[in-house]
Specification:
alpha+beta; Penicillin-binding protein 2a (Domain 2); Beta-lactamase; 2 domains; 5-stranded mixed β-sheet; 5-stranded antiparallel β-sheet; 19 strands; rod-shaped
């Protein structure tokens, strides 16, 4: 064999050996890969699935929307609208910190502040970046395709009537929990229960698949209030105009349905818009008609007359001698503007005689007077359930002195809320039946309690009609075509060291129509300035305007149409 042929054979053997070596290497490599695959897929399967789930499966909250609040006719007063909140996993977002300034601009946040928030929260997996964006704004953020940045669907409360119903409805916080008003009182009813779902996310934290539902959301229940938004708007507009006209400090109006105890309207001035969180302050959002107390002045006198009738010592025709126009009780001399002489109980109310009502009160036993006042609901909370409601102030008769009983007769030394006073007048309008106050629409009137004889309630109501007729103090409360029963009140405000003689509260409380009352309304104007400050000049016209339109809106027929000339009727029939 030649040397060249031998060299070729050696080269072939070396090549075959290397080829065999490579084949063995790849065979071992393939075997190791198969073994590794078998190990991973068979023996380590559960561990790997767990690790994958840990990295890519997430539990997300499914927000539940809050129940809608409506008026009695279904008009929305509070609704929940969908919004999106942007959140991030700081650990995932940190590597893309150079792109954070663009994100900050979309969110309207200072870039350096956002970077500091992210870097300070590296130990967290969840960080809100911006709450309550519109879906369109949220999509712009998602289009940036930043790692760890996600969107969460939430709901934001919106109040269509704004400041018209602000004091009554209240508001929620950013987490949609009730903070004031009916939002707080009925939070348990309105609030929903969030659900949860398991989702699969990609490496950028974006949801790519809903894996399973863990817990479905339970949305909040709707609440139908007793409010008639038409009357609420009317009361709001009229009160606002009166506050401006008399440059008053504040004011309130309450309108009740005498037949059911439902609140048809309750407004205050000044007010606030619950859609604007910059206006949130306790001074602005408290519901004065329910939380603030005042001394009612002469508007309390009908209740004292009712107590006198209930005692059995007086009848509607009874006469009280007010001569010489004053009466001394203890250290105090109580006076009328002039000597009215011997007058009836009707005249005591119509002319608002302090002397006459004082003499009535002083003839009663303290417990008789106190018991009647408490039966009207004074000194106790109403059943409204409104947060922060005041019970007023009615001192127990065991602590009365003679002067206490005398001043209470014309509205001093006793404090009420506008809602309490309206409820008390509704007792006179419902033939002596005391009905619970309701801020929620009722399917049927709640059972009432007979706290005053029907004859006594009717008699006082007839007397109060004379207040509004010519010669009475409340003529400006009259409503064309309707009989009105009501009472004016003007009270000095209490100040440091005693009562201020230049700060007043003007009041009118009344019933309409007097023949068969449907509405009980109270108007309170606090600290009117200028020449007019009496309840007859300030509060009575407001009552007239609001009640006149309310009766029309409710289609309540007139009960005092002027008599027509028979001759004109015959002439019309002959045509």
């Amino acid at each position: 064999m030649t040397r060249g042929a031998e060299t070729k054979q050696q080269a072939a053997r070396r090549f075959a050996g290397r080829l065999t070596l490579v084949g063995v290497f790849f065979s071992l490599l393939a075997a190791s890969l198969v073994a590794r695959a078998v190990h991973l897929q068979v023996f380590n399967k559960d561990f790997l699935n767990q690790q994958a789930d840990t990295r890519h499966l997430r539990t997300e909250r499914i927000s539940a929307h809050r129940g809608t609040i409506t008026d009695r006719n279904g008009e929305p007063l509070a609704i929940s609208t969908p919004v999106d909140s942007i959140w991030a996993n700081p650990k995932e977002l940190a590597p893309a910190v150079d792109r954070v300034p663009k994100l900050a601009r979309l969110l309207g946040i200072d870039p350096q502040q956002l970077i500091r928030r992210v870097t300070r929260s590296m130990d967290k997996e969840f960080l809100y970046l911006k709450r309550h964006l519109s879906p369109e704004q949220a999509q712009l953020v998602l289009d940036l395709d930043l790692p760890g940045v996600n969107v969460q669907r939430e709901y934001r409360r919106y109040y269509p009537a704004g400041e018209v119903t602000g004091h009554l409805i209240g508001f929620t916080n950013i987490d949609d929990a009730g903070q004031e008003g009916l939002e707080l009182a009925f939070n348990h009813w309105l609030a929903g229960e969030s659900g949860a779902k398991r989702v699969l996310k990609d490496r950028l934290g974006r949801s790519v698949e809903n894996v399973e539902s863990i817990r479905p959301p339970h949305h909040g229940k709707d609440l139908q209030t007793s409010i008639d938004l038409r009357i609420q708007y009317l009361a709001y507009r009229t009160l606002k105009a009166a506050i401006r006209q008399h440059n008053a400090e504040s004011g309130s109006i309450v309108i009740l349905d005498v037949k059911t105890g439902e609140v048809l309207a309750i407004v205050n001035q000044p007010t606030y818009n619950p859609n604007d969180r910059s206006q949130f302050s306790a001074e602005r959002y408290r519901n004065r008609a329910i939380t603030d107390i005042f001394e009612p002045g002469s508007s309390i006198k009908p209740l004292v007359v009712a107590a006198a009738l209930e005692s059995g010592e007086f009848r509607p025709s009874s006469i009280v001698d007010t001569a010489p126009g004053s009466v001394v009780v203890g250290p105090k001399t109580i006076e009328d503007s002039r000597n009215l002489g011997r007058i009836s109980l009707t005249t005591i109310l119509a002319r608002s005689s302090n002397v006459g009502v004082t003499k009535l009160a002083m003839t009663l036993e303290p417990d008789q007077l106190w018991n009647t006042m408490t039966r009207f609901g004074l000194g106790t909370l109403t059943s409204s359930g409104f947060p922060g409601e005041s019970a007023g102030l009615l001192t127990h008769f065991n602590h009365w002195r003679p002067i206490s009983q005398a001043t209470l007769a014309y509205g001093y030394g006793i404090s009420v809320t506008p809602l309490q006073l309206a409820q008390a007048y509704s007792v006179l309008g419902s033939e002596g039946v005391f009905r619970p106050i309701s801020l929620v629409a009722l399917d049927a009137p709640a059972d009432g309690e007979q706290v005053l004889a029907a004859d006594s309630a009717s008699a006082v109501r007839r007397m109060l009609e004379e207040v509004v007729r010519p010669g009475g103090t409340g003529t400006k409360a009259a409503v064309t075509g309707y009989r009105i029963a009501g009472k004016t009140g003007t009270a000095w405000k209490f100040a440091a060291g005693g009562y201020s003689e230049d700060k007043y509260i003007s009041i009118f409380a009344g019933l309409a129509p007097a023949s068969d009352p449907r509405l009980a309304a109270v108007v309170v104007i606090d600290e009117p300035t200028g020449e007019l400050y009496y309840g007859s000049d300030v509060a009575a016209p407001v009552f007239s305007d609001v009640v006149s339109e309310s009766l029309r809106l409710l289609a309540i027929p007139p009960d005092a149409m002027p008599a027509r000339d028979p001759g004109s009727i015959m002439q019309a029939m002959s045509q």
